[in-house]
Amino acid sequence: MAENGYLTQKMHREFWNEIKQLGTPQEIDLIKKSLNANVLIAQQYQRELWESAKKSYENRRVVKTPRLTELETELPVKFEKSLPYPKTSASYRQAMNSYKKHMEASMENSKRLLKSAAERSSMTSTQGQSVPLNMAMIDAVLTNLTSSFARLKDLLNENWDGK
To answer: Is the Cβ–Cβ distance between 131 and 119 less than 8 Å?
Structure first.
């Protein structure tokens, strides 16, 4: 996922060898579905968030892409559907509580990013990190997200396609 990241056939094979050792074929199918449902949609969210930051920066007002708005609704639904636990179980409740806490912080940071982009100022995250924003930085993040998303998609495809 790193800016200068890469994926080799060996890395891909090692990843899938680890996944295949995690349980029965049915459990592995659940893991694959969960990875695809949660990781890929989270990547889509990041891309749309930064596209929205770019539009906000350009327009000097907070702008959300239509897809970002859709994803804000889709993310919790897809996460909940991907859980392999019965809704009455402690594991289900624990997973949902953890997810909700993570999402609250994530949504607050997203809100701060868009506001800062619109104001063309530095963003301070909920963790106290200051991130200077300008169009070059936003474009660099978008470029890096595109390449990391492609690598992630290749990694989560069980069949190596020779890239």
So the answer is: no
Q: Rounded to an integer, what distance in angstroms lies between the CA atom of residue 20 and that of residue 35?
A: 14
Say what the pTM is. 0.81
| pLDDT per residue as tens digits for the range 58-78 | 999 999 999 999 999 999 998
Beta strands in the chain (DSSP E): 123-124, 130-131
Is residue 146 within 8 A of residue 140, CB to CB? The reply is: no
Report helix angle 135-156 to 41-59, nearest 10: 170
First to last CA, the chain: 16
Show the DSSP H helices in 60-123 as ranges.
66-82, 90-119
Residue whose pair of structure tokens reads 């392999």 in the numeric block: 84
Q: What span, in angstroms and rounded, lies between the C-alpha atoms of 46 and 39?
A: 11
What are the beta bridge partners of residue 124?
Answer: 130
- Say how far apart CA 108 and CA 142 lie, in whole Å: 20
